[in-house]
Amino acid sequence: MLARNYLIRYFLIAALLHTVVLQSGCATLAPAYYAEEHDNSLTPVEDYRFSHGRDLAPLDTLGNIISIPNKLLLWDKTIENHHITPATEHILKAYLDDHGLYDVKVRVNQYAPLGELQRLINNEQVGIGWRVTIGALSVLYYTLFVGRIFGGDSYNPFTNTISLYSDSIPIALHEGGHASDFASKKYKGTYAFINAIPFTSLYFEGVATNNVLEFLNENNAYEEYKRAYEVLFPAYGTYVGGSLIDLRLSYGPGASDQVLYLAPVLIGHIVGRIKSSRLRREEHKQVSPINSEQNIPATNSQEIECCVEGAIR
């Protein structure tokens, strides 16, 4: 009976991955547009929203080593590698510009606890009650668990800050997806509090993932669109696993925490790669790339495509 219950549970996990996260998976992928030449002149983003940590090779090497388990979990060597390339920065900037997010702070491999405290104090978009309670705890966590060492790409709605440690375009855009999600909400503090309730995080992560897939699809970033399935689906599985562990006691003794956590991640890898493989087959059916002026937003599509080419070559 217990075994059957766990089979049913994992079937529900698979269903979640197909419905909550994969809502945009049925969208028709626009034919890919490829820039004729790769622009090798890309430099780190010079924008008031972007701040870069100092080059500290020993510290970044330590952080890169500590993150090996997460690299293996998502099967991606760029996870928390503490070396973000200009291409990743430029695409994140394009996403922020595309969604009108001009007040979001992006800390690229940077540790700035005083800066975060100041942003918490000044962020009037979140109620003062939330800022002095959960917001203060979030800044304390940021201060004590140094991302420059331990990683942890994230978006903090209380300071309106993206902290980036991975040179992964899907991961960077995912944090941007959270930022655009919160930007559309009036009661941001309450919305953030709801995210702390077990299993509700699956909705938030699903929204951010869908935001990424829609953005890459609409801008014809074909390779990164496929890569997003391969990275973000198992990443979503980590949240499913974490939620199952949170509720494990209510189910009584049974599967270990490792099984509860890793099984959804494995399902995410399988589903994500199936989706990516289908897109690769669709790519071979394309007879010719579309014209650069067709179906591409005029604002920053060329910049996006240029940056994508820089990331995948």
Describe the structure using short key phrases.
disordered N terminus; 4 strands; 313 residues; mainly alpha
What does this structure look like?
- There is one protein chain.
- This protein has a four-stranded mixed sheet, with helices on one face.
- It has one domain.
- The protein is globular, with a radius of gyration of 20 Å.
- The protein is 61% helix and 4% strand.
- It contains 14 helices and four strands.
In short:
It contains 14 helices and four strands. The chain is mainly alpha-helical and 313 residues long.
The parts where pLDDT drops under 50 for at least 5 residues are 1-40, 287-299
For the report, how would you describe the main beta sheet?
4 strands, mixed
Overall geometric form? globular
**What is the mean pLDDT?**
81
Structural class: mainly alpha
| Portion of residues within helices | 55-70%
Strand content: under 5%
Number of strands: 4
Rg from alpha-carbon coordinates: 20 Å
Order of helices and strands: HEHHHEHHHEEHHHHHHH
The strand order across the widest sheet is 1-2-4-3
What distance lies between the first and last C-alpha atoms, to the nearest angstrom?
51 Å
Discrete helix count: 14
Number of domains: 1
